[in-house]
Amino acid sequence: MWRIDIDGQTVHSPDVGIVVGNPVLTQELNAADQLTFEVTPAHRLYDAIRAGVLTSRYIVYRDGSPVSYGRILAVETQPLNAVAKVTCEGELAYLNDAVLPEYDFGGSPSAFLSMFVDEYVKQTGSDLKLGRVITTDNNDYIVRGNEMPTALLPELLDKTVNSSAGGVLRIRHEDGKRYLDWIAEPDTPGSQAIAKGSNLLDMSSVVDGASIVTAIMPIGAQNEDGTYVRIPSSKDGTVSGDVKRKGAYLYTAKGVQKYGWHAQVMQWEDVTESKNLRTKAIAAVRALSPETTITASAVDLTDAGYNVDAIALGQSVPIECDDIATRLFVTGCEFHMDYPADSTYTFGKLAELSAVVAAADSAGWSDPSIYANSGTIMGDLTVKGGAYVTGGLRFGSSSASEPLARFTADSGSVYMALVDSSDNAQHQWRFNSSTHNIATRDYVNGAWTNWSTPNMLGGTQSVTPVANGLATKAVSFGRTFSSTPTVVATLATSNSTAVQNLRVAVSGVSTTGFNLQVYNAGTSTTARDVNWFAVVSA
Q: Which residue, 97, 168, 179, is CA-closest to 331?
């Protein structure tokens, strides 16, 4: 059920008989919301609404939860029947109220966003605060500037989400405060599928040929001599998987085979080192794909009384229709509050695994980069991007001079020893698989110290994933910690497509236990072992 409040007074709530005409809420990623409706002189707040341009604030609620905040932007009154057509803008548009002076910036993405927030607050007296900044810039350094003063919001969009950094800007409400976030991708997994034969009414798919790029010429920042940073020199051929090199270009072999050679220059103006440019360029080539936009008319099953999550902006949702079966980001919504069947949803970038990364990694969920082939707590390990060592894990390069972890076992316990190139152990851990106790000892002055039992535990828990959803399982420590521990968890299974669709997180940590959460972007419901460790900091 929808409700609209303006300045704390309800102007639309059908369940109590207060209504406006044709209320429609339109939302898009990286754009201000738009709310439109009509009001007649018979409405008790008719005069107040007409007088509230730029001063009156609205809140739209759905099923009791706020989904949009903003202000009245314009009121058009029909002279013959006095019906007022009201247009409201979402609170992201408030940033248009300030001007950003000329600037020359070099620093972290967080500091860059803070510069905009500080200037906006200084000019307007707003209570807006710097929020989460989670971008894909591994160097944590960007370069931006403008020699002319400019409107704050267009400059912010141009230098953040519309730049090579990309991402999503949003205003988030939490604990009565407002925060401006800059995140890499939408981070809300949706559980309600859009499916033919269920809630899908109509669908159209558009692939934009003008967006097809199969090769890029990567360039970085401009050097003092006027040249540009380029990727390191190397021979043509395979760079990483499907990513190939041809002269100054990196390209996707599968893309070229399917669509032909379509190249463009891609610049990262804040990248000053060749090796960092290479890393970013490889990631960019892997992400190359035609821009596919799907528009669907669907019935939100929450409106039909089903106990599922409502479809919302920024979610990654399952799409099932004929030859389309994947997860897509909801990039736009047009909610017709009076006529839900007229509501439409726009789905942009194919989500697939990236939706899981956006939804899970942004919330601090673990990437299953380490897989234990034996499915046990300790065993032969494969480290993605590192060396594989039978019976142990070599840290760093594959050089024999690097330290090595050796694993042994007896009845009920597994031992890991950190050894040097001559197999001389310096530190040892012991894990008891029945009590989950972990003990440690060190080799000091030619002798081993006694085993100590620090405040840590570990274990393995089997969890059965839910297709395209979230599975939660309670885990007990079997003891009470002196204080709330830090808990980490990772999958213990072989690398496969099914595993790559999974992310693991922990929640509800207390001194006696926690909840394991496994988010599944695929359909496999095979039970998976999850390794966990709990540690109380000294």
A: 168
C-alpha–C-alpha distance, residues 333 and 341, integer Å: 13
Best CA proximity match to 38, nearest among 76, 94, 89:
76
Residue 366 lies in a domain: no
Question: For residues 236 and 251, is the Cβ–Cβ distance under 8 A?
Answer: no
What is the span of the domain harbouring residue 6? 2-94
Q: CA–CA distance from 5 to each of 12, 134, 149, 179 (Å)?
A: 7, 32, 36, 21
Residue range 247-277, pLDDT digits in tens: 999 998 888 888 789 888 988 887 888 888 8
Per-residue confidence band for 38, with pLDDT thresholds at 50, 70 and 90: very high
142 and 126 Cβ atoms separated by less than 8 Å: no
On average, the pLDDT of the chain sits at 77
Please give the distance of CA 123 from its chain centroid, rounded to a whole number.
31
Domain end, chosen from 334, 361, 388, is at: 361
Same domain assignment for residues 83 and 153 = no
Structure tokens at 84: 């007022």
Q: How many domains are there within the chain?
A: 6
Residues 379 and 249 in one domain: no
**415 in Cβ contact with 407 (< 8 Å):** yes
Residues 251 and 296 grouped into a single domain: no
